Amino acid sequence: MAGAIVFTEVLLGTMKKITGEWTSDAAGDAQGTTTSYYSGEIAAFSTIPNPDADTGFWPTDNYDIVGRDNEGFDVIAAGGVDRDVSGEEAVSDTVLGAICHSQITFTVTNAGAVNYGKFAAWIR
C-alpha cells in the first residue's frame, strides 16, 4: 500500500484531535499510523471527501476508513464505512468505540486511484 496519510495530532484541553489528510494509491488505498499513543472514548469522527474541491480528485463514492488499535480492533467501530462524496459526514460517540494506550493505524480503501480526502477523530 503506497497511498499516504499525513497526520496532525493536537491536544485541545481534555480532547485530543487527530486529523488525517490522505492521498490514495493506484489501487485506491492509503494507510498511516499516528505518532502518539491514545486512551479514551472516540467522541466523534468526521470525513471530508475532497477538502480542496479545485483539484477534482474526488474519492469513489462509498469509500471506507477504519482506525485500528495495536491489537487490531476498529476503534471507530465501522463509523468510517461507506463514506459519501457529496459532502462532510460525521458520526457521534453513540456508535463509536474506545482506545487504551495505543497508536491508531488508519486505512482508507475503495477510494479510487490517486484521490484525496480528509478525516478527523476526537478522543475524550
Describe the structure in your own words.
The chain has strands spanning 4-12, 15-23, 30-33, 38-48, 64-68, 89-92, 98-102, 105-109, 116-123. The protein is an all-beta fold. It has one domain: Jelly Rolls, CATH 2.60.120. Strands 1, 2, 4, 6, 7 and 9 form a 6-stranded antiparallel sheet that branches.
Summarize the model shown.
With 124 residues, the protein is an all-beta fold. It contains no helices and nine strands. A hairpin with a 2-residue loop joins strand 1 and strand 2.
Helix and strand layout, with pairings?
Blueprint: E1 4-12, E2 15-23, E3 30-33, E4 38-48, E5 64-68, E6 89-92, E7 98-102, E8 105-109, E9 116-123
Largest sheet: 6 strands, antiparallel
Q: How many helices does DSSP assign?
A: 0
Text of the CATH class: Mainly Beta
Quaternary status: single chain
Domain module count? 1
Radius of gyration: 13 Å
Number of strands: 9
Distance, first to last CA: 30 Å
Instruction: Using the coordinates shown, work out and report the CATH topology.
Output: Jelly Rolls
Uncertain residue segments: none
Structural class: mainly beta
Order of helices and strands: EEEEEEEEE
